[in-house]
Amino acid sequence: MLLEVTHLTVCYDKAMIINDLSMGVDREELVSLVGPNGAGKSTLLRAITGLVAWEREITRRSTHGDVIFEGEVSFGGERIDQIPAHAIVERGLIHCPERRRPFREMTVIDNLYAGAYLLKEKKEAHDNLEKVYQLFPVLKERAKQISGTLSGGEQQMLALGRALMSRPKMMCIDEPSTGLAPIFRRHVFEKIGEIRNLGITVLLVEQEVSTVFKMASRNYVLSSGKIIAEGTGEQLLQDEVLRKTYLGL
């Protein structure tokens, strides 16, 4: 597998968010992670991409709270839970955060180049930019526009484009449809499908269960920090209790 998570536990102070969780994602798969609000989905992505470990280090230097991180995360056969987040990015694992989070005072093109800050060659960054523009033509049209003035759908495309600027092997995408009108949701999901078709592995957290089940190779259902079910969309939808209790269908 490209990504392997083994016996992962994450606690903030005394609250256990992830509880002895194990899962994996194969190369070039699109795997979804679904479940009710507060299940720990976003925390799991942050743990995979090194952000929880960073928070743990910060709390060690202060008197405010504590973060416990146990277990292992491996990417491409290498253990990555003991290296900093920027080193995880260098290895090709990228976090595309919830609610997009552009640098709002910067232009679209400056936001995109920020995603390529670890690249050593300017030509490589320029080549990546052209590929992002091919996937998201609207970003080329808005290149000089201040990012904070974009619509929600355009900001989501910017977040995806910025993540692509470093030529990732895998993207962890958190709730890309949040706050978007239906037409933009459909467009964003289409683009995520195109990203997967480029050979980029995707781990997708999303509330639009019916949509992602059609897109994903496999799905994990998370509740109270534990994986309670795994399978194709068709397999999971056959379980009536799962549908009503955990998927809201």
Question: What does this protein structure show overall?
Answer:
The model has no long low-confidence stretch (mean pLDDT 91). The strands form 2 sheets. A 6-stranded mixed β-sheet has the order 6-7-8-3-9-10, sandwiched between helices. It has a 4-stranded antiparallel β-sheet with strand order 2-1-4-5. It has one domain (3-245): Rossmann fold, CATH 3.40.50.300. The protein is built from 11 helices and 10 strands. The chain is an alpha/beta fold and 249 residues long. Helix 4 (108-114) packs parallel to helix 7 (152-164) and helix 7 (152-164) runs parallel beside helix 8 (182-197).
The radius of gyration computed from the alpha-carbon positions, rounded to a whole number of angstroms, is 18 Å
Total number of helices: 11
* Strands, count: 10
Helix share, percent: 25-40%
Strand content: 25-35%
Anisotropy-based shape: globular
**The CATH topology, please?**
Rossmann fold
- Please, what is the oligomeric state? single chain
- Biggest beta sheet summary: 6 strands, mixed
Which blocks of ≥5 consecutive residues have pLDDT under 50?
A: none
Question: Could you say which structural class the secondary elements and strand pairing correspond to?
Answer: alpha/beta
Q: Could you say how many structural domains there are in total?
A: 1
Instruction: Write the CATH homologous superfamily.
Output: P-loop containing nucleotide triphosphate hydrolases
What is the CA-CA span between the terminal residues? 31 Å
